[in-house]
Amino acid sequence: MLRAGRIEAVSDLNSLLTRNDKILIAALVAAALLSALPVLGAAAKSDPGSRAVVTVSGRRQAAVPLSVDRTLGIRTKSGIQTLQVSGGRIRVTDAACPRRICRHSGWISRSGEELVCVPGEMVVRIDGGDTGGVDAVSR
């Protein structure tokens, strides 16, 4: 009995939709899927950067390859900032600035990402890799 009810519901839906309605629905679903492919492909293909460029007060202080794990200290206006490179990414581990916002920013690894310490006038920017990818990823 329940099975007959489902068959009736499907046949009622088929009687409501014309052939052109079905073609339109199929075209809209195909267009939606095709428009999502470039976005999904770019997110999966985002390349990591190859080096971090550290500038203080607009002057380049260091270009650090992300392939070599190490720790380095950078002298800024607010004191020494300690940077850690590990696993193809970089972060600020110790900061001499008052609120230490740069320290809480976490790891960066993709081309175009930046860590900024405003009081120390320090910017750490990832260069190299593919720059035409996704600007940001939200989780």
The percentage of residues in β strands lies in: 25-35%
Helix content: 25-40%
Rg over CA atoms: 26 Å
Number of beta strands: 7
Which fold name is given in CATH as the topology of the largest domain?
mini-chromosome maintenance (MCM) complex, domain 2
What's the helix-strand series?
A: HHEEEEEHEE
What is the CATH C level class of the largest domain, in words?
A: Mainly Beta
Strand order of the largest sheet: 2-1-7-6
Write the layout of secondary structure elements.
Elements: H1 2-16, H2 19-45, E1 51-56, E2 59-65, E3 70-76, E4 79-86, E5 89-94, H3 101-104, E6 114-117, E7 122-127
Antiparallel strand pairs: 1-2, 1-7, 3-4, 4-5, 6-7
How does this structure look, described?
Helix content is 33%, strand content 32%. By secondary structure, the chain is an alpha+beta fold. The chain folds into two domains: 2-45; 51-127, N-utilization substance G protein NusG, insert domain (mini-chromosome maintenance (MCM) complex, domain 2). The strands form two sheets. It has a four-stranded antiparallel beta sheet with strand order 2-1-7-6, with no helix packed on it. A three-stranded antiparallel beta sheet has the order 3-4-5. It is elongated. The two termini are 46 Å apart.
